[in-house]
Amino acid sequence: MTEVLSQNEIDALLSAISTGEMDAEELKKEENERRIRTYDFKRALRFSKDQVRSITRVHENFARLLTTYVSAQLRTYVQISVASVDQLPYEEFIRSIPRMTILNLFEAAPLPGRLLIEVNPNIAYSMLDRLLGGHGTSVNKVASLTEIETTILSQLFRGSLSSYQEAWSTVVDIEPTMLDFEVNPQFLQMVSPNETVVVISLTTTIGETSGMMNVCLPHVVLEPVMQKLSVHYWMQHQKKTLEPEEQDWIQERIKRSDLAIIAELGRSTMTVQDLMELTEGDVLLLDQKLTAPLSVYVDEKKKFLAQPGRVNRQLAVQMLVDLKEE
Predict the structure, then answer these.
(1) CATH number at residue 312
(2) Same domain for 155 and 25
(3) What would the pLDDT profile of 50-87 be if each residue is shown by its tens digit?
(4) Fewer Cβ atoms within 10 A, N terminus or C terminus of the chain?
(5) Is 179 in the same domain as 61?
(6) Alpha-carbon span 68 to 80, nearest angstrom
(7) Where is the Flagellar motor switch protein FliN-like C-terminal domain (predicted)?
(8) What is the percent of the chain where pLDDT is above 90?
(9) 149-168 tens-digit pLDDT
């Protein structure tokens, strides 16, 4: 990752060059020399950029669905959006979250392993206060949640799993099930410390309270659907191949469909006055010659040329030209 210098560091660098403490020519030589970058095997990047983009797209959809769900439950303004998507060791993720927080552990059959949604205490208590009839004020006392408060919060997050299921429906059909509700990440061991996980950070605003929600997806959980997370796979499977039974069913329905077919003898133009004065036996002068073929329309589109005649004493037309073949 490229390091970004602060303004003070830039000023110090320019000052060192101007005073001669640092030689610009030496800097250019170092720039041209072969660079060696240290690779940390503990932070191996196991997800491609393509796969990360697909995971981001899924969770952007989840954020929209979760916004609707939480807004309906709390009856107040809620805004949830994806802030970042990072891959890092599980141990580093555990160290980055608060010592006391809200942890929702769940599984998503048929995917193996367990997943985690971590909710910042500020957000969690704002939700709880709103559910209990308050204004959504956040009071961070997560270490001393009562049984009633724990039950209310766990039910709220259990209901959000349906939104997670719908968000993943474009990739794989899952059935999320809540397993545990914890407040101390030290007691939570989902995978080995060096296992790579994808952490999706969601910026959450409830009324005037803001905080973060983090969705942690271990690599071992996503491994069975890694191929489906590539855009190439989505492009290949976008067009569904119909089974023979489905094709036969569609063809039978099309054969039984009603279509309006009109054989036009010709056209005539007249005034509204002449039209109102028409009576039985009047003759209309058409713009079509007697020997000219008739136009046949199917659902108001000209499809055939035909000639008039009779079949078993009934008026009929015989098709002469199929216009779509011309």
Answers:
(1) 2.30.330.10
(2) no
(3) 888 889 999 999 999 999 999 999 888 899 999 999 98
(4) N
(5) yes
(6) 9
(7) 253-319
(8) 22
(9) 889 999 999 999 999 999 99
